[in-house]
Amino acid sequence: MYKITRKRELVENIFLMDIEARRVAKSALPGQFVIIKVDEWGERVPLTICDYDREEGTVTIVFQTLGASTKKLAALSEGDEIRDFVGPLGNPSEVVTDEKEHLLKKKIVFVAGGVGTAPVYPQVKMLKEKGIDVDVIIGTRSEKTLIMEEEFRKVAKNLYVCTDDGSYGFHGLVTDKLKELMEVDKKEYDLCIAIGPMIMMKFVSQLTKSYGLETIVSLNPIMVDGTGMCGACRVTVGDEVKFACVDGPEFNAHLINFDEAMRRQSMYKTAEGKKNIIMEQ
Ligand code: NAD
Ligand code: FES
Fold first, then answer.
1. Which of 65, 173, 250 to mutate to test the pocket of ligand 1 (most atoms within 8 A of CB)?
2. What CATH code would you report for 94-218?
3. Residue range 110-135, pLDDT digits in tens
């Protein structure tokens, strides 16, 4: 059992929790994820790791209440326990791993959308600790749904907040801001890392492809086992079939078949679809 040591509602229906999970906290790296199960009957929910504290032995997750399981999780309080907390799963983000030091010489722009803003944070934080300054664009529906602005102000060189309704910061989508930065402000980037809803990653990818800007996205398809056995997280990257849980979750955005990935994600919205997709493997 894994104890909830901190719980905060960041904005309506988006929660942050620190979970006591010493073994996971010891080896977690930015870009990796965990699969949680609230209780014996709960669904397995994959969540990207948003931070970790090796000394305290805690891992931070941020989630939106969408289905029964996330609602059940949100109903728990500090001191309560959850049944399973499996991880760290997947590969750490290449940009923060030591073996890929060449990536760190690049001028990087992060594009974070909605709840996907949270998993961008540990990457930017770790790069800052390594002395690498990066720009961050956050896109959200309105000021009321904006999360983690304060945290990002401390670690990003330049932070550009965009709201769909213009209630705060730049009025427009993240793609509008990226376009402005590149075409009007003449910013030059070597690498873009985008994390957020699939539709956002698709359009960021289309835009950066037109600029010839290398782009990495972190996919969060539905996952079942998280170990490459069930095939639920299948995605087509170039000519190859990959499993996001073991081959990813980060991939070269320009090679991803986003339309197929979105079709598969929507099939999973119903229990029936879920059954079909598993039978399809
Ligand atoms: P949202 O719908 O509020 O969108 C966030 C931002 O994305 C918008 O403000 C906008 O700037 C941009 N965006 C949206 N549609 C766009 C388009 N067509 N073109 C260009 N930009 C666009 O986001 P949300 O409701 O918080 O998103 C929830 C989704 O994020 C869930 O589906 C969840 O699965 C996903 N998510 C992904 C990750 C990941 O690791 N990739 C992590 C957490 C959540
Ligand atoms: Fe089963 Fe990836 S979740 S193969």
1. 173
2. 3.40.50.80
3. 999 999 999 999 999 999 988 889 99
